């Protein structure tokens, strides 16, 4: 029997003794499950937000308030008729206030530190997100032995501060590796 602890600061749920990435949820949804459990195939296809250039993965978006998120996205293999979720993410807008985003990110990190061994934490610092517009990105990852990951990031758009956001992502190893390798070079 699992005891679920809702982390209101984090906006996702976790088992107190989380053993793998499927123990975590965003908006009551988890990786490793079929997106069809949460929406119809018609809704999935209607809400496609992005298809990677090599068409290996597709992102479907759900806009609206789910828990405390402004938008939730699901990543699945484009050709998978079961729509198995490999990645799920929630966005919270921090229009014109990147410092509030960083403060929320720090609160989330402190809560996660209570759940995880600090050896799993990987703080990348502030990175350049786009040289063209001077935007920056501050990702903090929690890596599991399985290769799965949770990432909490703030993105700052100095030229369009109304786009600043916090993103909480849950990624299965296969999708995470795709993002870090193939998605970058996909044509």
Question: If you had to describe this structure to a student in words, what would you say it looks like?
Answer:
The chain has helices at 41-46, 98-115, 173-180, 182-185; strands at residues 4-7, 12-15, 25-26, 48-51, 57-66, 69-77, 85-93, 121-123, 127-130, 135-143, 149-156, 165-171. The chain is of the alpha+beta class. Strands 4, 5, 6, 7, 8, 9, 10, 11 and 12 form a nine-stranded antiparallel β-sheet that branches. It is globular, with a radius of gyration of 16 Å. The model is unreliable at 1-17 (pLDDT under 50).
Written as H for each helix and E for each strand, in order along the chain, the element string is EEEHEEEEHEEEEEHH
Portion of residues in beta strands equals: 35-45%
- The average pLDDT is 83
> In angstroms, what is the radius of gyration?
16 Å
- Largest sheet report: 9 strands, antiparallel
Number of helices: 4
Ranges with pLDDT <50 over ≥5 residues? Answer: 1-17
What would you call the shape? Answer: globular
- Span between N and C termini? 46 Å
Helix content: 10-25%
Count of β-strands: 12
Structural class designation: alpha+beta
């Amino acid at each position: 029997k699992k005891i679920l602890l809702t982390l209101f600061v984090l906006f996702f749920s976790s088992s107190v003794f989380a053993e793998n990435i499927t123990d975590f949820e965003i908006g009551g949804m988890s990786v490793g499950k079929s997106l069809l459990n949460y929406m119809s195939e018609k809704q999935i296809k209607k809400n496609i937000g992005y298809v990677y250039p090599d068409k290996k993965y597709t992102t479907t978006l759900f806009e609206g308030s789910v828990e405390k998120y402004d938008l939730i996205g699901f990543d699945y293999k484009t050709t998978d008729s079961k729509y198995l979720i490999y990645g799920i993410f929630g966005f919270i807008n921090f229009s014109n206030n990147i410092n509030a985003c960083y403060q929320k990110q720090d609160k989330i990190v402190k809560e996660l530190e209570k759940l995880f061994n600090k050896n799993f934490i990987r703080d990348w610092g502030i990175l350049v997100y786009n040289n063209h517009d001077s935007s920056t990105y501050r990702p903090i990852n929690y890596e599991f032995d399985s290769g799965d990951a949770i990432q909490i990031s703030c993105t700052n758009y100095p030229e369009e501060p109304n786009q600043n956001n916090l993103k909480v992502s849950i990624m299965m190893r296969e999708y995470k590796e795709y993002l870090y390798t193939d998605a970058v070079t996909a044509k």
